[in-house]
Amino acid sequence: MAVLRSLAAVRAAPGLWWRAARASLGLQGRCLGRGYSVDAAQGFSSSVQSPPTFGFLLDIDGVLVRGHRVIPAALEAFRRLVNAHGQLRVPVVFVTNAGNILQHSKAQELSALLGFKVEPDQVILSHSPMKLFSQYHNKRMLVSGQGPVVENARVLGFENVVTVDELRMAFPVLDMVDLQRRPKTTPLLRNDFPAIEGVLLLGEPVRWETSLQLIMDVLLSNGNPGTGLATAPYPHLPVLASNMDLLWMAEAKMPSDNPMSDVYGANLFHKYLQMAKHGGAEERGASGLWKQRPSATQSCASILVCTGVYNPKGPEPTRPTQEAEAAPFHGHRDFSFSPGLMEASHIVNDVNEAVQLVFHKEGWAL
């Protein structure tokens, strides 16, 4: 869970709270200020006492739900967050590494589970930031994942996508791992298949072997899998991957959360905000990356709850040593690793306790 601190300038726009929270992650629109993250959470609030200058970014799996079951503490938390008219006193944004569902479908799912209307703009999926990659939106992209991948790609702005199944049908001899699907006769080679210009990974696919095989063939052939390989092209075609986290806590007893994606991400966002505040955040426009809009967000504090993977009775984590820092790094290659960023600002039992903690710190009546 993360909590954001916002500026007074946005207080007069309660209808845009969650849009502001999205913008603080670099997605769109104006953004707010300070925040708190429960395993990854952020948002804002309003009541008669005073307009809020903070809000929540709420992770979903392990914080609000376990699989399809609501964690009881989440219902208690939203009794504090939602007023008698079914409106949020404190604006909330729901953040998830899931990408196998449409944004409005996830909002409907959360509405049914939590008992109040969640708007689609309050939901940030793992691939939502890809709306920013406009330089690839008109390119022919191979899309891999599960669920409504084509619809999700188009919502993100990608206008010309081809699925792994469409590519496999065009070049059946490339799908060589699954012996049952190998063609019994050699099909004619296609020479009318438009070249692929990039790869779009919207989460994990069901058939890993097929997706990996065809993606590698596309990269090695520079987007023309029907041709022979002379030399491996470098740099290869762009690969836009939306989710590095394949571990989460659902109904199964085997835990899984990746500490490099939730608490680390919230703390890294806070670090970025501090750099931006002091003029140290890097902007690159000419290189093809987007320019980040100036953020009104001041800070983001991470709150770790014990209803997910984290076990407070587990062994005490060892303090970072030179040997530990040299251990394999499981984060994103663009992350600079800092052991301190894996430590949450606060550790509480559940999301209800987290909300009470934030209300107390912000001077809000429970």
What's the structural blueprint in terms of helices and strands?
Layout lengths: L1 E4 L11 H8 L9 E5 L15 E6 L5 E2 L2 E2 L1 H10 L10 E4 L7 H12 L8 E2 L15 E6 L3 H8 L3 E4 H7 L27 E5 L5 H13 L18 E3 L21 H15 L21 E7 L16 H4 L20 E3 L2 H12 L4
Parallel strand pairs: 2-12, 3-6, 6-7, 8-9, 8-10, 10-11, 12-13
Antiparallel strand pairs: 1-2, 1-12, 4-5
Helix pairs in contact: 2-9
Family: Belongs to the HAD-like hydrolase superfamily.
Organism: Mustela putorius furo
Protein name: Haloacid dehalogenase-like hydrolase domain-containing 5
Characterization of the model:
The structure is a single chain. Helices cover 24% and strands 14% of the residues. The protein has 366 residues and is α/β, with parallel strands linked by helices. Strands 1, 2, 12 and 13 form a four-stranded mixed beta sheet that branches. A four-stranded parallel beta sheet has the order 9-8-10-11, sandwiched between helices. Helix 2 (72-81) runs parallel beside helix 9. Residues 6-33, 40-47 and 285-290 have low confidence and may be disordered. Belongs to the HAD-like hydrolase superfamily.
